Every structure is written in C-alpha cells, then in structure tokens.
Amino acid sequence: MKISVIIPSLNPDDKLVSVVDSLVKKGFEDIIIVNDGSDSAHLWPFEKVGSYSQCTILTHEVNKGKGRGLKTAFEYCLKNRQGYDGVVTVDGDNQHRADDIYNCCEAMVKNDKVVLGVRRFDGEDVPFKSRFGNNMTSMVFKVMCGLNISDTQTGLRATVILIHFVILRVRDSSMKQLCCLNLRSRIFNLWKCQLKRCI
Questions:
Q1: Rounded alpha-carbon distances, angstroms, from residue 91 to 69, 148, 156
Q2: Strands, sheet with 3-9, edge to edge from the N-terminal-most edge strand
Q3: CA-CA distance, 16 to 23, in Å (whole number)?
Q4: Cα angle at 97 between 84 and 103, to 5 degrees?
Q5: Could you report how far apart the first and last alpha carbons of the chain are, in Å?
Q6: Chain center to CA of 37
Q7: Which of 86, 133, 149, 158 is most buried by a 10 A CB count?
Q8: Phi-psi category of 6—alpha, beta or left, where left has phi over 0 and alpha has psi -120 to 50?
Q9: What is the per-residue pLDDT across 117-175, written as a single tens digit (0 to 9) for each?
Q10: Cβ neighbours of residue 52 under 8 Å, at least 6 residues apart?
Q11: Are 138 and 150 spatial neighbours (Cβ–Cβ below 8 Å)?
Q12: What is the SS3 string spanning the chain?
C-alpha cells in the first residue's frame, strides 16, 4: 500500500525523532513533516529526520496552526503523490504506536473508509479533564451531527485522497470539525480502529 504519513509539528523535541524512527522501522516510505514556524532552538529534530530518505520537510516561516499545517501537507500530496492510496495524520509527540498507525492504514485501504484511531477513556489512568472533555464533545457530535465518535480529538486519521479536495476549501480553524463532519457524507464512510493504549 502507498501511504503518505503527515506529521504537523511545532517546537518538537526528541519525541518527533522517535516517532519517525518507529515509522521507518515499520516500513513507511513517505513521511511528510510540517515545521509550523518552530523557533531556532527546536529546529534540530527537523534537521535530523530531514536527512532520512523517507522524509520530506515542509516549512512555515511563522506559526499558522495545526489546521493550516495539515492543509499544507494535503496540498503537497495532491500535487506530488498522485496514485497513492491515501494519507494518515499522526501526532509528533509519540502517543501513537507504529503498529496502530499501520493497522489504521491497512483498514482504510481494505475497507475504502476513513479510519479514526480511537483511544479508550474509561481507564483509571485517564485524567478526568481528558475523559470529561472527550465525553462532552462526543455528545455534541452525536446530537448535532448524528455521528457516534468515541474519540473526537484523535490525531490519528487515515483518509482516502478524495476527501482532501473538500478539506482544502475550508478555513484552517475549522479543520478538526470538518474532518469529523465530512464523515456524515455518503461519500466518506467511517471505520474506527481501537488503539492499544491511551496517553
């Protein structure tokens, strides 16, 4: 399967390098990292992974936000990754396991669906703030949009290329909402992949 991994990042540390190393070890061959206006003290992780043959670094000179970072990567993929099966967005803080990322991609390709990597929020080790916030937004999406999404804040999403033509038409600040709202459309079917851990 031909997948582009997208990682938006602002002022990363060694966790970004760990994420990229695990992806490379898992066999991912196209990793696109967006430097969203990081300061000079945090450029070294981009320089390190930028030396990998599997990595492409896209740079914003100033911070534009995660939504714009994702759109920059989507635009790049639409122009330079034709014929790919899709993309998967990943957080750069090492909370997503490479195995989980791969499983989401595999499910997306196999089922031709948008796949969300969902975490469990019922464990005793999950902070109350995280559990409460996610439960509230899940309820809002269910009532207002008719969507049953158990993890509304997940940064792990595997999507087919087609969805990005729609995403690129919206405001940067609406990215997360759009990614979820588009799942209601008949064009974009939803599949959920349970992650092995929640951080």
A1: 12, 23, 7
A2: 55-60, 31-36, 3-9, 86-89, 157-160, 114-118, 190-194
A3: 11
A4: 45
A5: 28
A6: 18
A7: 158
A8: beta
A9: 875 645 555 555 555 555 555 555 554 555 555 555 678 889 886 555 455 555 544 44
A10: 20, 24, 31
A11: yes
A12: CCEEEEEEECCCCHHHHHHHHHHHHHCCCCEEEEEECCCHHHCHHHHHHCCCCCEEEEEECCCCCHHHHHHHHHHHHHHHCCCCCEEEECCCCCCCCHHHHHHHHHHHHHHCCEEEEECCCCCCCCCHHHHHHHHHHHHHHHHHHCCCCCCCCCCCEEEECCHHHHHCCCCHHHHHHHHHHHHHCCCCCEEEEECCCCC
Take residue 76 and report the two structure tokens written for it: 């790049």
The dihedral over CA atoms of 59, 100, 106, 164, expressed in degrees to the nearest 10, equals -30
As given in the structure block, the two tokens for residue 111 are 């089922």
Burial of 122 (0-12, 13-18, 19+ CB in 10 A): exposed
Instruction: Give which of 64, 159, 60 is closest to 109, Cα–Cα.
Output: 159
Q: Each residue of 25-46: pLDDT tens digit?
A: 999 999 999 999 999 999 999 9
